[in-house]
Amino acid sequence: MANDLYNTPPEELDAFVAQELQPDRAWRKELKHVFLRMKEFFQKECFKDYSIQGKEVEVIKVVKGGSFSKGTDLKHTSDMDMLLFLSCFSSYKDQYKFRGDIIEFMKEKLENCQESKAHGITNISEQNSTKGPPRSLNFDVQSERGAEQIHMSVLPVFNALGERNPLSSEFTVHHEVYAKLKKSRSYPGEFTPSFSELQRNFLKHHPTKVKSLLRLVKHWYRKYVREKYPRRYLPPEYSLELLTIYAWETGTQKAENFSLAKGLVTVMKLLKDYNKIFIYWTNYYKLKGPIKHFVKMHMKESRPFILDPADPTNNVGKGSRWKPVAKEASNCLNQPCSQISSWKIKGARNICVTLKCSSLWELEYSVNPYDPIQNIKKEIERVKNIPITDQQLSFQEAKRKTKVLMGDSTLAEYKVFHPIKIQVLVATSTKCRIHVRFPDNFCRSYLLQRNDNILSVKQKIRKQEGSRVMDQVLRFKGQFLWDKKRLRYFDIKNGDTLELELITRKQKKKLKTKKEKKMLKGKMGPLP
């Protein structure tokens, strides 16, 4: 079997992951040993007798972050995150204010440790941030084997979740935690490390095969995208991890056994049409209170929209260059590894809409935001026996005008990706019977909607009488009627009569100027 992903047949991808991407036990043991070694240093030695601006600094807890903690790391991957939850941070503001000084202090301590205790630590540096103080202290640690360096990033963070245990399967974040995060008015994602345990739990407790799919997508991204475009501001790996989880959830209904190849192809198709991606989860927060409004405002942002399930202020799909990723995804779909069908999913998950007709009845219906609104009308017709032509759908958001939903549009076009209430108006009153008087004084009636345009009237005349649309001129109370204008524009109501004039071919030939011909087609004023 070739060790190149693109040349691997779909049926051999499981073996490819096992042989090429799955970390061996010895290497994971090595990473664990290094983590415990550095954990002991930061927890017991680093901040001994240290305080900052009168606040004593103690390590409340140390948490593993990144792929190593989620169980999605690749073979011989040497990156590891360590999060230090410090007692001196009593708020998000404290973390932002003191973070830089603490990282500088850790750097000095580590340099002394490097000289006196020979921990095998090299390349100590701060990760600078363009929007504030440094975010982390970075360095390399020599593995016990001595063959490879393990890169570590240490982040001092605020213990936003408090004393509650985030490892519980039923854990939900109290809305006040996110309300305070919203009030901090920080750059989106600035304080996401405070919720790293939730990120870890979200990915870690998935079936083994899902982690294989995550490794496969991550390997593709590193080898075929990052190596090809090293200087581009590309999306974070975490965004692709979330997209992969979404593909599995919606494509298999969370099945534990599935085709890796189909999963890979599905993710590639989603990436190819990245501007249709709109996904979010509510595992740890509910769409209510200030967070509901905050998240809905985020939903107005351009796509791709991939909301961090642990931090509702962090759209991980925003601000990156997705075109190179989409280009390489298209290339991947043409390779031998992708010659298999995908799961049938769309860029957004189905939402529940509540259809309400005054106080008469209420109906819940599951619909995809990218499906035509006409599908909702068909469901109403099927269940309530109300003709589609008699329905008018609308919805209203807080402090905004009511929006009428057009049948040929989608909820996505109205930027609706969350459960909403849709008002149903049985609009039989919008129908009107219009009379048309022909040149020989003969009258015929037509049943129309006031939203119909004049061209619709001409088409009905054409269907019943055979007169070509281009030969017809309609007037109402002497006023010339343009094809594209609606009946209500001319205040044409039920029972009104329109005058029809038929222009013969000979009369057309007498029209000398382009201006006169435009008048005939209804693009200008009335014929003289």
Characteristic key phrases:
528 residues; alpha+beta; Beta Polymerase, domain 2; Poly(a)-polymerase, middle domain; Ubiquitin-like (UB roll); 4 domains; 5-stranded mixed beta sheet; 35% helix; elongated; disordered C terminus
Care to give the gist of this entry?
With 528 residues, the protein is an alpha+beta fold. It contains 15 helices and 19 strands. A five-stranded mixed β-sheet has the order 3-4-7-6-5.
Description:
With 528 residues, this protein is an alpha+beta fold. The protein has four domains: 142 residues, Beta Polymerase, domain 2 (2-Layer Sandwich), CATH 3.30.460.10; 188 residues, Orthogonal Bundle (Poly(a)-polymerase, middle domain); 76 residues, Ubiquitin-like (UB roll); 90 residues, Roll (Ubiquitin-like (UB roll)). It is 35% helix and 20% strand. It is built from 15 helices and 19 strands. The strands form five sheets. It has a five-stranded mixed β-sheet. A five-stranded mixed β-sheet has the order 11-10-14-12-13, with helices on one face. Strands 16-15-19-17-18 form a five-stranded mixed β-sheet, covered by helices on one side. A hairpin with a 5-residue loop joins strand 15 and strand 16. Helix 5 packs across helix 10 and helix 7 packs across helix 9. It starts with 12 loop residues before the first helix and ends in an 8-residue tail after the last helix. 33% of the residues are buried.
State the fourth-level CATH superfamily of the largest domain.
2'-5'-oligoadenylate synthetase 1, domain 2
Instruction: Give the strand content.
Output: 15-25%
Report the CATH topology name of the largest domain: Poly(a)-polymerase, middle domain
CATH class of the largest domain: Mainly Alpha
Most strands sheet: 5 strands, mixed
Helix/strand-derived class?
alpha+beta
